[in-house]
Design a protein that fits this description.
Protein name: Sigma-54 interaction domain-containing protein
Organism: Cytobacillus spartinae
InterPro entries: AAA+_ATPase, AAA_lid_NorR, P-loop_NTPase, Sigma_54_int, Sigma_54_int_dom_ATP-bd_1, Sigma_54_int_dom_CS
Shape: globular
CATH architecture of the largest domain: 3-Layer(aba) Sandwich
Number of strands: 26
Strand order of the largest sheet: 12-11-15-14-13
Distance between the termini: 42 Å
CATH superfamily of the largest domain: P-loop containing nucleotide triphosphate hydrolases
Helix content: 40-55%
Number of helices: 25
CATH topology of the largest domain: Rossmann fold
Bound molecules: adenosine-5'-triphosphate
Keywords: ATP-binding, Nucleotide-binding, Transcription, Transcription regulation
Strand content: 15-25%
């Protein structure tokens, strides 16, 4: 699947999944995002990389999702809360009664108990989430949507329904996409209010006044940045948050006050605003942005919701947003001085870059991954006359193709389903008067290459869905770690684009071709981590340094920095050669015996899929002397003890892959799986390579 702002929601059971999707539907998320849902058992057949966000129903489910989650796919772990609308029945249970809280997993069971206790439900809770023999003296069970797990002898089951996603997570979802949930265009606040009113209507007065509902209501309304006021048909104020009380000079604590407490001019402005309308209104010299909504119950209008805010706040929000963006990627952090080197060719290249910086020409930076291409691009911008204007970085390998066009060129309002109502400024426009850094340009799709070529030729862009050409003054700096000439030969990169980009090429040398820099950078990074970790100085022994100098550094400076970070964590004062097993290429694991290479490829494949550790644990388990063969449930238990939670389906999938590579055999019946000689060799070579 690939679409604009698509969210995948993953949970453990189908019940929970249905409920969570319903909740997201109810508050209107499908208006903004495409929503797809899966249980953990379905993940083997799914690629997550095209989703803009993966929403995971809980911490424990995250541990199951993690192996499938591509490194660049953003995720959020939901905070969940009980469904307050369903807890009426709990209030009938006498205080202090012993009850079971039954749920599927330890964590969700304990969390539900905590939330209920927190909400003032005063019962003697006992968690129940395994198949353990239940206590006969407990006869009431409360469950958040899992009645099938309740022990048989229980006389009364109170199903409070699956736990809902907490408001803080909903707000985080919107924040992730840079949309304010409380902004005039989303109207989410009105929806929250409506759902709260629905709940309050359902509950009796007694519950309404109880601590728990008040708490949830308060936390939502008080946490809103806007001023919120709700009054009913009898003109009685029902809700007034602190922001509203401050602006309107009202007390925050009151019962059924009349709206006539509000000063006349404000009241008139509120009344004059039409329902469903949002507008700037001026009241006694201050401009407010005000919205008005009806809150209905069934067909009946019940209350009126007014949400407002000083107009100047909106300006401030916009300003803050812009300055945040500046910190994020609109700003070049690095200067030439930050490129630390003692290598003559690199020093020479930096000199040339310094001169090129002053021109407006397109620059292409070539170099392997991690050599510092982005650092160089930022330094060029910094040294250019454009340095007071934005530096916008785009990574073609990080954004999905479907998003790329609109991210780069922007779109007009209503350009496609899911487009924001006000349209969207693209990165090229944001970079106007500044520089745009097109990183990993070799990964740009043919469509994007086409459009880039036109921008470079004509220096103007057209937004998606638009018909106007917008002139632009942008300096383009592109970078790639790919051999573009080879891509041209293969037909995946446009030759004409290559010549447009390759006007002034600069090459960042790989670390292995500037060995003098290795000890310099080790010193620099050691100092950095000494400071960060507050640790004693790190000293690399002669052998360790020699090993570093003879290593081929495929990940270049980034890899070197990672290694120094690693030893800064594990070593005392001196770093010995033995502390760097990852670099020891004498070990046969990385040697070029054909079969070992093949084993290395298998490792890579498992790593890419994200479950190398699990596969290794399965092999090690089958390799242990006590085990001749093993069934799946024993294996699941073993993995659980090691901190990996796998469903039956997930285990089957991993076993299938291991057996496809002849590392194990799977036999039907009680015998289960067995490790093969090739599997034993795999473990042996891997452990050797790790110095184990
Ligand atoms: N000469 C240098 N001195 C200090 N730090 C450096 C130097 N070169 C690179 N780095 C650091 O190495 C890391 C990788 O640099 P950068 O992201 O610029 O590489 P890149 O070539 O753009 O990588 P990729 O092709 O993977 O995007 C960064 O943390 C950067 O700060």
């Amino acid at each position: 699947m690939s679409s604009l702002n698509s969210i995948l929601i993953v949970s453990y059971t189908r019940n929970t999944l249905t409920m969570l999707i319903e909740q997201l539907n109810e508050i209107g998320l499908p208006e903004f995002f495409e929503i797809d849902g899966r249980t953990v058992d379905d993940l083997d057949r799914l690629s997550m990389k095209d989703y803009s966000l993966v929403l995971v129903s809980s911490e424990i489910v995250y541990s199951m999702v993690k192996p499938y989650l591509p490194a660049k796919t953003p995720y959020l772990i939901c905070k969940r809360t009980v469904n307050y609308a369903n807890i009426r029945e709990l209030l009938d249970v006498p205080k202090g009664t012993k009850v079971y809280l039954v749920s599927d997993l330890k964590q969700s069971t304990e969390e539900s108990i905590r939330i209920l206790k927190d909400a003032g439900i005063d019962l003697d809770f006992y968690p129940y989430y395994t198949q353990e023999t239940p206590r006969e003296d407990i006869t009431i069970a409360i469950t958040p949507g899992e009645p099938q797990l309740v022990p048989k002898h229980i006389k009364r089951v109170i199903n409070i329904g699956s736990r809902l996603i907490d408001i803080s997570t909903l707000v985080e979802i919107f924040n992730h996409f840079g949309i304010s949930p409380f902004s005039p265009t989303t109207h989410l606040s009105a929806r929250f209010m409506q759902s709260l009113v629905d709940i309050t209507q359902e509950l009796s007065d007694e519950i309404f006044r109880s601590r728990l509902l008040q708490k949830s209501l308060d936390s939502i309304v008080q946490n809103m940045d806007e001023a919120v006021l709700v009054y009913n048909n009898q003109d009685e104020i029902q809700v007034c948050n602190k922001n509203a009380a401050d602006i309107l000079n009202l007390p925050t604590q009151f019962e059924k006050e009349s709206i006539h407490l509000i000063q006349e001019s404000f009241l008139t402005a509120m009344r004059n605003l039409q329902v469903g309308q949002e507008n700037f209104v001026e009241i006694d010299g201050t401009t407010f942005y005000m919205r008005k909504k009806r809150i209905t119950i069934g067909e009946q209008v019940h209350s009126t919701l007014i949400v407002f805010r000083k107009a100047e706040d909106y300006r401030k929000i916009e300003h803050d947003y812009r300055s945040k963006a500046k910190q994020r990627n609109l700003y070049a952090r690095y200067r030439f001085d930050d490129i630390r080197t003692v290598s003559l060719p690199v020093i020479e290249m930096i000199k040339i870059a310094g001169r090129l910086a002053k021109s407006n020409s397109t620059i292409l930076i070539l170099g392997e991954t991690g050599t510092g291409k982005e650092v160089l691009a930022q330094a060029i911008h910094h040294a250019s006359p454009r340095n007071h204007n934005p530096f916008i970085g785009v990574n073609f390998a990080a954004i999905s193709e479907s998003l790329m066009e609109s991210e780069l060129f922007g779109y007009e309002p209503g350009a496609f389903t899911g487009a924001r109502k006000n349209g969207h400024i693209g990165m090229f426009e944001q970079a106007h008067m500044g520089s745009i850094f097109l990183d990993e340009i070799g990964d740009a799709s043919p469509v994007i290459q086409n459009r880039l070529l036109r921008v470079l030729q004509e220096r103007q862009i057209m937004r998606v869905g638009g018909d106007k050409l917008i002139p632009l003054d942008v300096r383009v700096i592109a970078a790639t770690n790919k051999d573009l000439k080879k891509l041209i030969e293969e037909g995946t990169f446009r030759e004409d684009l290559y010549y447009r980009l390759n006007v002034l090429p600069l090459k960042m040398l790989p670390l292995r071709e500037r060995k003098q820099d290795i000890s310099l950078l080790i010193n620099i990074f050691s100092k950095e981590f000494e400071e960060k970790l507050g640790r004693e100085p790190l000293v690399f022994s002669k052998e360790a340094l020699k090993l570093c100098e003879s290593y081929h550094w495929p990940g270049n400076v980034r890899e070197l920095r990672n290694i120094v970070e690693y030893v800064a964590h594990i070593c005392n004062e001196t770093v010995y050669k033995e502390d760097l097993p990852i670099l020891d290429n004498e070990l046969s694991y990385f040697s070029h015996e054909p079969e070992n290479d093949h084993l290395y490829e298998i490792e890579e494949e498992f790593r890419e899929k994200g479950f190398f550790e699990e596969a290794l644990l399965i092999l090690e388990y089958l390799n242990s002397e006590e085990i001749e063969s093993a069934g799946r449930s024993a294996m699941i238990n073993h993995l659980l003890q090691k901190g990996y939670f796998l469903s039956d389906q997930q285990l089957r999938y991993r076993q299938k892959l291991l057996s496809n590579h002849d590392l194990i055999t799977i036999e039907k019946g009680r015998k289960g799986s067995q490790i093969t000689d090739k599997g034993k060799k795999f473990i042996y070579l891997y452990e050797k390579s790790m110095g184990l």
